[in-house]
Amino acid sequence: MPHRKDEKTRDITELIVKAGEKARRETRAIPEPELTRPIEWPVSCTVGPGLEGAIACETKIGYVNGSKGWLIYRGYDIFELCAYSTFEEVSYLLLHGNLPTKKQLAEYNKKLVDSRNLNNTMRLFMNYPVEGMNAMSALRLGTNLMRHELTYIDREEYKPNLDGVIGSDEDSIPMETKPMGEKDAIYGFKRIKMNRPFKGVNPELHPAAGAESCNHLVSGVATIAAAVARLKLGQLPIEPDPELSHAANFLYMMTGCRPSPVEERIMDVALILHADHGMNASTFASMVVASTLSDMYFSVGAGIAALNGPLHGGANEQVLYMLEEIGNPGNVKKWVKKSVKEKKKIMGFGHRVYKSYDPRARVLAPLAEYLVKKDSSNHNLLETATTLEKEILDTIGTKKKIFPNVDFYSGIVYACMGILPENFTTIFAVSRVAGWTSRILEYLENNRIFRPRAMYTGSFEKEFKPLEKRR
Ligand code: SDX
To answer: For the chain, is the Cβ count within 10 Å smaller at the N or the C terminus?
Structure first.
């Protein structure tokens, strides 16, 4: 496999290749669960609270092998994608199903470059008190302003196009009756096309859902996130440089400095690592919104809202605060003992699916070490993290299958690049917008509004008392 061209970052490629070899060595023998076969609907699965274990749909986009700790995008191993491709290629792969040819990549990249400049959106955006807003709240506001500026959804002539679409109850089993089993449901899906241009509106404003809006969002969310970081520091947003790559532009628009090849490469790897991850909470949230035939911008906004939570994408920021609270490696043992006693969730550890080492942490940890070797100002932070990892694995980790997840080392990598913790989760969204939009496009091919059940355990036949008689 030819290594990437840039000689200046060859050592980073080698670091990733070594991490992949180590992962395969350590996990090859672990048995493979048979969760990768086509589904005959209706399907039986064991479902826990929070839909744990529920199978919501089929997909060809990505596969998380939790027992082995493997991550696959459209059949490609994450270590190979990090070692040899770019976020542009990977977001194209997720959206279109194949790695782009040179021509396809040039065309796609032009779309990203054309969508990166959001001057009108920025003008609207700067009327808001972004400097005092939570970064993810500002990011979600920015996507709404993109929706207003780049589509015609807010125009009165816009009418959603519903012909040929399943009604919400048309083929579902009677919901609140005694579950008769799915034999009464007709699971006949119809194909819907979301990209039909709507008549009578400004043609160059693109449809609100479908491939064009995905390109706008994959490109524009980075522009908004970079502007949020600057506005929160009282600085003006910076226009993108069409000569720079997606990762380099994101760093440039955030810091005002063109990144070094190493900084660009490491941000590019981070964006590849965070791009897609099965039916995680924010991907599911974005798909639920899209399944009602709302639009891609609202769906991405729902993904941003879900990702913000500290149990999900918000953990990367909390890990930094946690490591700062521990202070130094010498405090780790005492801190862990106290946290375990108080049954506290240790940020950056554990995972609903990975009951093994998160492959993304296998790349981010050596990247953090690589950066700290170059600039030792975060040496104590990294030492505290690696000591904490060892202490967790030696105590609750192996028993409860709690390992470092993607959020444990990502914050240290970003801190080494001078990025403030308040922007860490927006970086997660800059990448995951590729996974959200890809899975929405795929799901809308055979759309069915998400509508699970809740088992009613309340009371019946209560006697109504008028207000004056209630005590
Ligand atoms: C992401 O889904 C995805 O793919 C998400 C993600 C993605 O790319 O989209 O991978 C990104 O969100 C990574 C996770 C980031 N969150 C954190 O680091 C927050 C800390 N982690 C935990 O909150 C927890 O591990 C979750 C939420 C991530 C996983 O949730 P689960 O599977 O519901 O965990 P659980 O609560 O059922 O845990 C099972 C046991 C429990 O112990 P018991 O009640 O059986 O005694 O493990 C314990 C938990 O208390 N446990 C932890 C722990 N995680 C699980 N104990 C201490 N610290 C932790 N971090």
So the answer is: C
